[in-house]
Amino acid sequence: MCGIIGFNFEVPAGSNYLSIADYRGPDNSSSHPYGSFTLGHNRLSIIDLTEEANQPFVSACSNFVIVFNGEVYNYKEIRKKLVSKYAFRTNSDTEVILYNYIEKKEKCLEDFIGMFAFTVYDIKNDVLFGARDRLGIKPFVYYQNGKQFAFASEIKVIKELVNGLTLNKEAIGQYLRYLYVPSPNSVYQEVKKLEPAHYFFYQKDELKITKYWDPIDFIGLKTTAKEENLLEELDDLLNDAVQLRMIADVELGSFLSGGIDSSTILYYMAKNSNKPINTFTLGFAGADKYDETSDAKKMAAHFNTNHHEIIIHPNVADLLPKMVRHFNEPFGNPTAILIHELTRETKKYATVALAGDGGDEIFGGYPRYEAALLYDKIKFVPRVFWKILNPFFKIISEDTSGNHKFRRIKTFVNSLTKPLDEMYEDWVGYYSVKEINELFKVQQDFQKLVAEVFKTIPTNDLIIKTSITDLKTFLVNNLLYYGDAMSMANSFEVRVPLIDHRIVEFMTSISSDYRIKNGQTKYLMKKLLSGKVPDAIINKPKLGLNPPMGMWLKDDLKGFVSTYLSKESVEKRGLNYEFVSKLLKEHHSGKRDRSLYLWSLIVLEEWHRQNSI
Questions:
Q1: Residues 6+ apart with CB under 8 A from 194
Q2: β-strand 516-517 against 520-521: which pairing, if any?
Q3: How many CB atoms lie within 10 A of CB 378?
Q4: Cα(459)–Cα(456) distance, rounded to whole angstroms?
Q5: Within 13 Å, how many C-alpha atoms sit on residue 528's CB side?
Q6: Which three-class secondary structure state does DSSP give residue 526?
Q7: What local confidence, expressed as pLDDT, does residue 235 receive?
Q8: How far, in Å, CA of 59 to CA of 88, rounded?
Q9: Which candidate in 2, 128, 471, 524 is catalytic?
């Protein structure tokens, strides 16, 4: 993985646009002018480690140049179809992407299996083409102002290229609602994120963006297939997805939590390797409730892996500024800190690791999918009943130590009084619209992204509908975003085989009964893994990678709470101190679990201080 950069204008003198994010690619950094554009690249060498494969990479005809971030895993297969026509001079996937684009233009994207964000510049015709992978694993941001156009892997690079970016107030409202700024928005009005599964052409000062893939096109295509046939097909897909992602010219391993997703990946890695797999497990010092190291040890022993147990003692107060700096905008999921520490320590042993991100969205693992099934059973109960019942649920105290059961029950009952799209917004949201308006003292308008996406999914099957909504919102803007930002901060590559687009298409095409069946979440995956991994792993309840935020707020972050949420700091940002005080009292009394609400405000204040806004 790497960092890409491009622009078609003069930059401020002394700009550090190439070095400011060079942690994304410490092995080589270079930029050169080509026609109207200057293109730059920071390289983290994974495949073909030679200098010849450095970027920007120019075609043999000298008419095309590419900058590319990511991996196209099936590049060898594609290369076989091109080798008779093009003179390859490297063994890299970069060169394959370039010549496949020259051959097929935007249709080349149909061939690629992988994670990518890249541009190809046609020097002769002054046409810039760019694309982002189907699920949005790799980031791509851009800036357009009149005749000026720039793109990069990170927002901070755009900030080095141009002056005078302005705060996007709508994005702040969205951040507090979701704990992230959803694409295509960014925290700056002038900077946008290219959405997943989209490509663009920039020519004659005009930008034309097009969607090239959508999971909704596969809904219900295989609902009559027999279970034994589905198991066989899923087995083949998972095996190929994992095997392809084991291709690397550097040391490779796997993150192992002891859960079903990482265990699935380890099973297929072991199946396709003739040597022990390197496995890495994260544990917490003094927080046994959040620790899965014992289950990971069972899996490591079962497959005889070269196991590494990483026990962290994160100093959150020190890590918070670093985390905010690498996200470039407010981001409120504290799990990001854990990924930063995990990849930092794993980098001592390897440069690439496979991870189970996306398994819950694809195979049906989240409690909210079970809630969707429950809603289907009670949806005929009049809403007035839930309005009468809701006040009684509100008085139930919530657990502030990390058990979200009571908070989820209260949210579920309260949401039953609302339309379906608003109901799902509440399930995945944090600050309500009412609370955001209280916090800002004024009406704070913002696009309700999750509700809008939810309404566009053309099915009445709530499991499929919520899953695809999560793919297009939560997965890309939250999990994949922090996965990229935190791993790249440590010059480390994370690969995510469970969201191979072929697996997404397959799981979307079959009945949702194979996600949750007879109360069993991830039914099809667990059925497939039966007899292949220990039953204790298959049957264990979902824990998830969650930090001990309650402990952090009381200990490591105590100083941040008193200074960043002080009356002076809060009012300086135009926020309502009385409302913030109310959140603190609710949390400390145990009435409400406000840990992520408070954390998001601390992150927002840190971002303001770093960016002088």
A1: 117, 130, 132, 140, 141, 142, 183, 184, 200, 209
A2: antiparallel
A3: 10
A4: 9
A5: 26
A6: helix
A7: 98
A8: 9
A9: 2
Directed axis angle between helix 595-611 and helix 169-178, to 10°? 150
CA distance 356 to 342: 14
Four-residue CA torsion sign, 184, 186, 192, 193: negative
Cα 424 from chain centre? 20
Paired sense of beta strands 141-145 and 148-152, if any: antiparallel
Alpha-carbon gap, residue 411 to 393, rounded angstroms: 9
Tokens 């935190």 locate to: 486
DSSP code, position 10: P
Residue 2 annotated as catalytic: yes
Beta strands 352-354; 493-495: pairing state: parallel
Helix/strand/coil for 39 = strand
Backbone angles phi, psi at 6, to 5 degrees: -165, 145
From the list 594, 605, 361, the residue with the least C-alpha distance to 469 is 361
With contact defined as beta carbons under 8 Å apart, do 181 and 175 qualify?
yes
pTM of the model: 0.94
Residue pair 462/373 in contact (Cβ under 8 Å)? The answer is: yes
What is the predicted pLDDT for the residue at 392? 62
Rounded CA-CA distance 420/433 in Å is 16
Look at residue 48 in the predicted model and tell me its pLDDT. Answer: 78
Cβ neighbors of 145 (< 8 A, separation 6 or more) are 162, 190
Report the distance separating Cα 6 and Cα 193, nearest Å. 15
pLDDT tens per residue across span 386-428: 777 777 666 666 665 556 666 777 777 777 888 999 999 999 9
Whole-number pLDDT of residue 318: 86
Rounded CA separation 419/383 (Å): 10
Kindly tell me the burial class for residue 144, based on how many C-beta atoms sit within 10 Å of its own C-beta (0-12, 13-18, 19 or more): middle
Low-confidence ranges of the chain (pLDDT < 70): 1, 286-290, 392-406
Distance CA 308, CA 288 (A): 18
Distance CA 475, CA 573 (A): 30
Are the beta carbons of 128 and 203 closer than 8 angstroms? yes
- What pLDDT, in 10s, does the model give residues 419-456? 999 999 999 999 999 999 999 977 778 889 999 999 99
Is residue 462 within 8 Å of 376, Cβ to Cβ?
yes
Single-letter amino acid, residue 59 = S
- Can you give the pLDDT at residue 216? 98
